[in-house]
Structures are given as structure tokens and as C-alpha cells.
């Protein structure tokens, strides 16, 4: 297995896959990171062309674990050195990645992926082989997906201890707009409003403000890459939020009542808490993509093959 | 010292004050809670009239630690049984409380207070004497405040291990609208948007969504009491947030760029992090209220008397 990009996700993936007994090699963006990974006993260089040729030679799965802005450049190398390879990715949007693959490496056998794991840290040193334990790992179940590569990606997720959530690329993007990208924008706006005026408010800010703004501390370029790469889905989520906030503002100004907003939020949070204990199931090899998508839509997760 | 209300805040206050060597008695809303507190060795009954008469007899400080909706009823009892007592409170809004005191117990020597501590728990059993350690405790520094009662409240805060933040009642309300009430409403809206549609989004929701919606799990009646009790200040905070979200929506739809929003949020979160290490100082007894307010506005906190 060939991993392009050895940051938090790529680096954790290499550790988890090697621990699961796989042969893993990869490439880093800098000599320094390659040396760090090599010192930790991993087969990492900066020669992406060579790594991709090796993948082509043995028909290995190639995992793209670079930020979205770097993807087009890497895909051009894929088209040159491993044009028909088995290909997946670990980027946080799926439609934009599929579009880039179609444009730059159209012959690659691509099935998108998104392991839903992360920490505030980044870089090779922050990686760990347990990062994906019990995490959700979306495997794109679009019509026409190559079932063999779908199997490769699902088995990689399981080998890393994750649970597979099948979803169409556009369904994935709508979901993450609501539960990841909008929360980042809300955190940014909340932080900015808290910092208006003098220092009194920030001095008093604790519990609810600390939690609500935590992800505003994420490196801006990471937030911009994922949010701007999911523009259409994100606009829908922002409009839904603006509609709810506008209705709340109207109620507060007229009757002063906030019960509808607060009770809807409380109920939604209870539903989220219940979803922490998802239905886990196994499926038969070759289950059609449409059937797989239904599993994802009902919030269930796949832990292995039924046989 | 007489504490009316033995929930999380009142119960923690009794424990902290008794540990600091003070004579403390209080009243609970139910026989059951009174029995619980008595079993823990505290002087707690349900007879508010008797507790207030005792406070009047020895000119003790009375602390109101009941939710805002229960306050008018308690203040009527204060007016009857301890009309000129030294009085403070631990409610999360200050203008509304001052208005209620002026209406129902106008002769009480009132100085508002707000210990900024709390957990997700509530009730006597959840209380603990360390709750206020290193916490900010706002002591209302309005012009005309009785300096003797101001001293009582500040010394109570210090006895409980807290740091005093002086602020005018209306300045306090504007600050908490931004850093506590708005975060609760944002959490509610974020949770509701996440729960729209099928179960896929909630199944994938983790880190940023879990943090951003945490306080949406607070009991709705508590959130409603504090937010609806701070309507005017909250409207300003909501409008500021709507302005920022609207501008962001426009930028996302036109250029697709979110840098301004994300970078402002990042910078604000850094400022908040820096404010975790506030300037700590001592002041002379009798420092004028206007001077005290300046200390609060620059984010500093008072830990004791200068003498």
C-alpha cells in the first residue's frame, strides 16, 4: 500500500496498516519529514514518482492523504506514473476530489474515502496507529464504483480498527457541511463576537464559550481548504442555520420567547447522543452500491464481511 | 451568612464558606433537599422566613442562589422578614435582578454578584466546596453601591477561592450575552441543523460537532431562564452574530472565500487563550466604583485588599 502524504492522517494510516501486517510505503512533502518517518522505521521518501511506479508494478492501493489544495499536483503524477492504479483518498470532501480525479487521472480506479478522525495536532509526529479505532470511515458508494477497489478500501478501514459508513459522495458532503464545516464557521463567528469590545467578556468566558470556540483554534489554512472545497453543500447548511437564527431573533424581539430554539436544540443533542451507539453489521461481498448507501443513511456502520 | 437556595451554586457556596470558617445556614426548596443537606452536616431547613429573620437579627449577608424565575417570590419574603439586610445573589444576569430587588425589596442593601462557575450537574449532591477555586466572581460595581456590602461580597468570593471581577450590572449583562448566552443559542441551532435529514450526518458527527453542541444538552428551563432574563443585551449579541454570518454567507456565495471569517475567529480564540492568564492585583479598601470598573474592563481580577 502506498500512502502519499505523511501528516496526521497519512502518518497514522501507515502505522495502523503496518501494525495490521501490510507492506506500506509512502512519500512525504519534505526531506525532514521523510527522515523523521525513516527514523521511526517506516519506508518513506520524497520521491513520489518512484513510490507510484512501485504501486503500479504490484497493483497496490494508493492512498492520497494530502490537503485538498495539493491534490491536483499529486494526481498529475498519478496519471503519469500509475495511471490505472487502485486509488482512494482521505480528504474531508468527496465531490471535489472525485471531480479532480476525473480531470487529472481519469483512468485511475478511484473510490473516495474519509476516515472521520483527527486531533488538534498535525504532522508525522502527531500520528498514531490507534487514531482510527472505532472511528467512522466513509467509503464512497457511488453508482459505478469499482467493487474490487471498494473492497480494498473497506478492508483497509477495518484493518485500522474503523467502521465503514457507505455514502454517495454528494450525501457525504451535505452531511459533513452540517456536522463539521458549519461547526467550524460557528466557532469562528462566536469567537469573534466574544472578542468585540473591551477585555471584560474574554476574561469571563469559560465553559460554554471555551467549548463553542474550540475548533476556531484550528490552523486557518486547514479550515479554509475543507470549507471552501465544499462550497455548495456548505451554503445550504449556512442558509438553514441563518433561517433558524433569524426566526429565533424574531421571537426574542417580539415575545421574548426562546423555547422553540432551545427545545429543538436539546432534542437534537439527545438524538446525537443516542447515535453514539450505532447499529453495527456485516454485509456480503458484492452488495450493490444502492443497498450500501441505505445502510449509511440509517446511521448504521459495517464492521466486516458476512461470510 | 444565609444562603437561599441549595442547588449546585448555593450548595457549593455553603460548603466553601463553612470550610473558610464562616457560620452558614440556608434554606432549600424541598424537604428532601433540606434532609440531604442536613445529613451532610449543614444547617438547612425549608423555613425561609426563619432563616431571613435570623439574618436580620445578626445583620448577616443573605445570598440569593435561586433561579431567576423564583426570585420575585423570595424577594417578597426578604422585604417582609429582613427588609434592610445585606443582600447579594448568584444569578447569571444582573440588570434584571437589580430591577426585581428595586421592585420587591427596595430597602435591602443590595450588591449583585455572579460566580462564573458551573458544571453540567445540578442539585445539592452535585455541589462541592472547590467549585469556585480560581473562578471569576463578578461583583456589581454600580455607582451608589454600598461599599460595606461590596466588601462583604468580595470577601466572600475570596474566602471561596475565587477572583473578583468588578463590573457595572449592564456591562456584565452585555459580556455574558456574548460569552455565555449566545454560545447556548448557537449550540442549540447547530444541533438542530445537524439533526436535519436522515441519520447519516448524526452518525458521522464527532469532534467539532460534539464540542459545538455540548451545552445544547443543558436542561432547557435553565437556558431559557438565563437567556430570556437578558433579552436586550442578548439581542445585540445575536445581531452582531447575524451580521457576521450574513457577510460570510455573501462571501461564500460570491467569491467562495471564507478567509476573513476564519482568520478573525482564529485571532479571537488566541486572544481568549491569552486571557486565561489574567492580571491579578490587590486594591485598597474604599476604592471608588468607577476605578473598580476600569479594572474589570481591562480583564484584570482582584485577589484581596492591598493593605
Automatic annotation (TrEMBL), chains A, B:
Residues 1-283 form the Prephenate/arogenate dehydrogenase domain. InterPro entries: 6-PGluconate_DH-like_C_sf, NAD(P)-bd_dom_sf, PDH_C, PDH_N, Preph/Arog_dehydrog, Prephen_DH. GO terms for molecular function: NAD+ binding; prephenate dehydrogenase (NAD+) activity; prephenate dehydrogenase (NADP+) activity. Keywords: Oxidoreductase. One of its GO terms (biological process) is tyrosine biosynthetic process. Belongs to the prephenate/arogenate dehydrogenase family. This is Prephenate dehydrogenase.
Amino acid at each position: 500500500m502506498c500512502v502519499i502524504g505523511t501528516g496526521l492522517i497519512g502518518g497514522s494510516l501507515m502505522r495502523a496498516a503496518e501494525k495490521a501486517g501490510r507492506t506500506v510505503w509512502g512519500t512525504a512533502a519534505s526531506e525532514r519529514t521523510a527522515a523523521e518517518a525513516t527514523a521511526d522505521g517506516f519506508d518513506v521518501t520524497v520521491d513520489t514518482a518512484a513510490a507510484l511506479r512501485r504501486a503500479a508494478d504490484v497493483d497496490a492501493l494508493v492512498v492520497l492523504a494530502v490537503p485538498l489544495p495539493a491534490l491536483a499536483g499529486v494526481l498529475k503524477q498519478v496519471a503519469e506514473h500509475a495511471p490505472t492504479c487502485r486509488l482512494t483518498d482521505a480528504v474531508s470532501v468527496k465531490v471535489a476530489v472525485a471531480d479532480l480525479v476525473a480531470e487529472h487521472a481519469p483512468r485511475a480506479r478511484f473510490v473516495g474515502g474519509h476516515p472521520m478522525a483527527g486531533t488538534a495536532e498535525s504532522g508525522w509526529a502527531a500520528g498514531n496507529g490507534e487514531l482510527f479505532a472505532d472511528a467512522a470511515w466513509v467509503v464512497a458508494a457511488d453508482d459505478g464504483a469499482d467493487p474490487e477497489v471498494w473492497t480494498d478500501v473497506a478492508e483497509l478501514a477495518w484493518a485500522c480498527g474503523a467502521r465503514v459508513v457507505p455514502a454517495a459522495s454528494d450525501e457525504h458532503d451535505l452531511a459533513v457541511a452540517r456536522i463539521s464545516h458549519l461547526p467550524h464557521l460557528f466557532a469562528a463567528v462566536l469567537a469573534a463576537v466574544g472578542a468585540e469590545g473591551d477585555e471584560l467578556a474574554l476574561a469571563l468566558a469559560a465553559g460554554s464559550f471555551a467549548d463553542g470556540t474550540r475548533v476556531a483554534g484550528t490552523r486557518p489554512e486547514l479550515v479554509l481548504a475543507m470549507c471552501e472545497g465544499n462550497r455548495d453543500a456548505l451554503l445550504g447548511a449556512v442558509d438553514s442555520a441563518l433561517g433558524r437564527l433569524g426566526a429565533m431573533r424574531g421571537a426574542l424581539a417580539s415575545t421574548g420567547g426562546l423555547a422553540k430554539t432551545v427545545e429543538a436544540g436539546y432534542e437534537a443533542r439527545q438524538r446525537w447522543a443516542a447515535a453514539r451507539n450505532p447499529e453495527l453489521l456485516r454485509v456480503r461481498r458484492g452488495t450493490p452500491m444502492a443497498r450500501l448507501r441505505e445502510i449509511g443513511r440509517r446511521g448504521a456502520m459495517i464492521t466486516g464481511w458476512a461470510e
